[in-house]
Structures are given as C-alpha cells and as structure tokens.
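Worked Example 4.2. Consider the chain below.
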Amino acid sequence: MLLKHLGAYARLARLHRPIGIWLLLWPTLWALWIAADGVPDGGILAVFVLGTIVLRSAGCIINDYADRHIDPHVSRTRDRPLATGEVSVTEALVVFIALMLIGLGLVLTLNRLTQSLAIVGAVVTVVYPFAKRLVSAPQFVLGIAFSWGVPMAFAAQLGHVPREGWLLFVVTMIWVVIYDTEYAMVDRDDDLRLGVKSTAVLFGDLDRVFIGGLQLMFLFGLLLVGQSAELGREYLVGLVPAGALMLYQQHLIKDRDPQRSFNAFLNNAWAGGFVFVGILFAYYF
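Applying the procedure from the previous section yields the following structure tokens:
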C-alpha cells in the first residue's frame, strides 16, 4: 500500500516524465556557467539542480490542483492521479507544501538577494495555473516562472544580476513561450471546448508563424548573450544544431497533428542541451 501511494505521489509530481526538469534545468545551467566564467561553485550548483527538481515537482502538483475539474475531460490528462481520484486534494496539497518547504530549506543556504528572488519565483509558480482562466496568453506567465532560475543563478554566483543575466532571462522567456505553445497545440480542441486559454488558441492558424518568429528571436537573443558574455565562436558549436532543431520543430508542427506537436515540444530538451554544449565549448575549448 505504501509503495502504491509513493508511486501515485511520484506520478503526481511528474517524476516519470522528466522533460519539465530538463526544460527548467538547462537555462539554470546556462546562467550558472556564464555567471561563473565556466567554473560554477559546486555547492551552488548542487542547490540549483536539487531545487529545480523539487520546484518543478511542486509546480506540477499546484497545476493539477488548479486543473482538477478540467483534467478528467482532457484526453491527455484524464489519467493524472488527482483527476482519477487516486490522490486526494488534501494529500496533493500536503505533498505540495512539503516540497515547497524543502525548496525553502535549499534557498536558505544562498545569499539574501537570491532568497528575495526565490520568493517572487514561488509566487509566480503558484499564480500561473490559475492564469489559464484569466489571461489569453498564460504562456507568458509560465515564461516568467520557468525563467526565474536565470536571475537567481546569477545572484547566487555573483551577488547581483548583470546585464547578460537579464538578457538571458528574456531569451529564456521566449523559449518557454515557444515550447509551451507547441505543448498547447496538443490540447487545442479540448481547450476550445472547455474554455481554457492558451497561445495556441489565441493565434489559431497563425500559430506556426508566431512560433517561427519567436524561434528567430530566441536564436538571435542567444547570439546577443554570447556577445555580451564574450563566449567566442566556439559557442556556435551549440547554437547551430539548436537552430537546426528549431527548423525540425517547424516540420513537426506543420500539420498541427497533436502527437507530432508533442514531439516538437519534447525536442526542446535537445535544443537546450545543445546550447549548454556551446557554452561548455566556449569556456573549455
């Protein structure tokens, strides 16, 4: 019985689907390496890796809590533990609070500025799931939540957030809107029926143009980050394949097939990884 409950809690936190962890972790690693000129503090690195896993898990739980009356009616989400009743609302909230307390314990090991930024990030994380009822483009709210680790990483490493830190924050926000719009394309029919808002619904048949424009902005923004941080031409070792993957995503979403759109979303984990490879090449080669 205990193992069954632990398995349900792990699925509630989406630990069986680590794509969200990677999408959160890559920008944090970009930021830590750039802030530390390629040699991040080991303790800070460990805190951010663990914190990313913990806070992503907490974010999934509060998202499912907000969507508990919607998820049973969406084909992709109807088997989630809260939607099926396998986990009660009380249990979900207890696990959420426990994870947030673990996150608090981790952030208390960092400096005061990072702690202050963490409070803002936690508020945005809680607000995002409810924004889908109020805001036509909730992906921009998610963009803030999923990018907030960038200024936090600079603050933890340097004690302040320099220009390239805020630039990388904006670039990461753009990336979040890209992949979450691809993700929202999977549920567009259900969202239209249920009245859930998303950029996929907002832009309709202009979704590919919207995503393509953001992809160009994302790649150009990464070039500006590289120039600001003086990463050099070795940085392109990562940016070129990341750009190629953006083109591949356009191919995947061309017919707006839900499964291929979901594959485009998943493909972003590789794109983020290649950007990190470019940063590694810039500092070590």
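The chain has one domain: 2-284. Residues 2-284 form a domain with the Tetracycline Repressor; domain 2 fold (CATH 1.10.357.140). Compare this with Example 4.1 before moving on.
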